[in-house]
Amino acid sequence: MAKLLDQKKSIFISGAASGIGMETAKKMLDRGWIVGSYDIVPTEWHHDLDLDEDQLITGHLDVRNFEDWENALKDFTSHTGGKLNAFFNNAGVIVDGRIEDQDPDRIQWLVDINCVGVSYGAKACHPYLKKTKDSVMVSMGSASAIFGQPEISTYSASKFYVKGLTEALSLEWAKDKIRVHDLAPLWAKTKVSEVNARSIRTLGVHLEPSDVAEVAQKVFADPNFYDKLRVHHGVSTTDKVLKSLADFSPDILRRTITKILTG
């Protein structure tokens, strides 16, 4: 068993009970990885799958609680010989509406999960990633961090936080030989897209969770040279084009484009 654990790679995924986390977990299981699916709700999608014993480890995780992170990682790595090759910092929520109409408690809830939770995840996983060769962390970003989005302002701002944290840690963790990336797709068909936002009405929701998971698993397990160097990863042609335009556009132009797309 110890030899088998040494040969298998492992990935811990937060918010993996559904959506993009679930689809990424399935793809990594298909690759033969040991997968940790941890969420605030039980993981139930695996019951009909034909898996090897101890290939999928499930457990409870409230990302707002740092002790929960420590306990979840201790539990998961007890099944992997102490190794952690990859971490998908995936859990996230959304609040919609104009800022003056958003419930203060819901704003706090969003920030605690999307910002504090992502930071807790990075901090808790670092010791495990640091001692594993060629390790990687990917966080769930969003194309809404290209330019702030109306009617989902707090969500959009939280994804700017993820973008900034990713960039900072890509430098901070370089000495530890940990690759750090984020995914920045447009809307995918998950609970996050079940909101009233202008960009949904104008751009639509065309991505499936599996489309995002396909890019995620490539960054984790099969990156080319350029993928390793690139910090932010788009998913669709549209979000890649929008990001490229934004990278070389002044604020006034980015604001105008965003206004047109969300008007």
UniProtKB/TrEMBL annotation:
InterPro entries: NAD(P)-bd_dom_sf, Sc_DH/Rdtase_CS, SDR_fam. Keywords: Oxidoreductase. Coiled coil: none annotated. It comes from the Bacteria. This is Oxidoreductase, short chain dehydrogenase/reductase family protein. It comes from Corynebacterium lipophiloflavum (strain ATCC 700352 / DSM 44291 / CCUG 37336 / JCM 10383 / DMMZ 1944). PROSITE patterns: ADH_SHORT (PS00061). SUPFAM superfamilies: NAD(P)-binding Rossmann-fold domains. The lineage of its organism: Bacteria, Bacillati, Actinomycetota, Actinomycetes, Mycobacteriales.
